[in-house]
Amino acid sequence: MRLEGKVAIITGGSLGIGLETAIRFAKEGAKVAIAGRGLTALEEAASLIRNVSSEVMTAQVDVQAKSQVDRLVDEVIERWGAVHILVNNAGICGLSSFLDITEKDWDEHMNVNLKGAFLAGQRVAREMMERGTGGSIIHMSSVNGIKAEAMQAHYNVTKGGMNLLSMSMALELAPYGIRVNALCPGFIETRLTKSLIDDPRAIADYVKTIPMGRVGQPEEIADAALFLASDESRYMTGHNLVVDGGQVIKLA
Ligand SMILES: NC(=O)c1ccc[n+]([C@@H]2O[C@H](COP(=O)([O-])OP(=O)(O)OC[C@H]3O[C@@H](n4cnc5c(N)ncnc54)[C@H](O)[C@@H]3O)[C@@H](O)[C@H]2O)c1
């Protein structure tokens, strides 16, 4: 068991990549707290995680709200005494041409994807420092944080920001044994990408941009998250780990 005795918080843990990561961590012995906005989705996710572990808790949290993020961390500490792993996974991705992005859309992307990661990262890092436990913080970034994709300027900027947030936190938190890394998935089959996957012609064209010739699965990102959470990556911090079937290395 690679995470035996560890306590992990996974934001956006009720669906997609977050849920698969929660299941993977639970299989490896972690106590897992999943946070998300929808109660029903959280309960359904918890019942799936309970198939592999009884040590699971759910919290209805909007990561944009500091008070809700603080309450989540308080509840986890009260129940399990520490936090060793944080996965800042909650995220949204709208599609809009640059000229049509509204101020509301812009703010929402910044607040959920970037401010949410800052709030949870800062609070959890303080706990890790005070308890002297060290830990691993993982930002679920994207290849869109490395290269720009049309129709997603607001999303691209949040993921580029997450990569810099990871490096900035890694620099300051390394002396306390806290590692901070970004995981950059390519195109993964989840609710977020469903509309493209459900369009046979569009997805066939899109897959041509991926050297490995297929889209990724949430389990493949969960495996990389497990590596970053575990001691196997103990000398890695401030790194962007790309898991994308080769998509970003392609020039044309
Ligand atoms: N699917 C992909 O191709 C892909 C690629 C690169 C990066 N990512 C990133 O991975 C992460 C997970 O994406 P996914 O594909 O599993 O999407 P998803 O839509 O299936 O899941 C997103 C999760 O985030 C939660 N969430 C959204 N807004 C929230 C908020 N304000 N507060 C709390 N929780 C909130 C949702 O409830 C859900 O649990 C996102 O950060 C996304 O940007 C996804």
Question: Main attributes?
Answer:
Rossmann fold; 8 helices; 252 residues; alpha/beta
Sequence-ordered SSE layout with sheet pairings:
Blueprint: E1 7-11, H1 16-27, E2 31-36, H2 39-49, E3 56-60, H3 66-80, E4 85-88, H4 103-131, E5 135-140, H5 153-173, E6 178-185, H6 194-197, H7 200-207, H8 218-229, E7 240-243
Parallel strand pairs: 1-2, 1-4, 2-3, 4-5, 5-6, 6-7
Helix pairs in contact: 1-8, 3-4, 4-5
The site of nicotinamide-adenine-dinucleotide has 29 residues, from helix 1.
Bound molecules: nicotinamide-adenine-dinucleotide
Distance between the termini: 42 Å
Give the amount of beta strand, in percent: 15-25%
| Largest sheet, spatial ordering of strands | 3-2-1-4-5-6-7
Along the chain, the helix and strand elements come as EHEHEHEHEHEHHHE
Largest sheet: 7 strands, parallel
Shape: globular
What is the CATH domain class? Alpha Beta
Our count of domains comes out at 1
Integer average pLDDT? 98
Number of strands: 7
CATH architecture group name: 3-Layer(aba) Sandwich
Total of DSSP H or I helical runs spanning 4+ residues: 8
Name the assembly state. single chain
Question: CATH fold name, please?
Answer: Rossmann fold
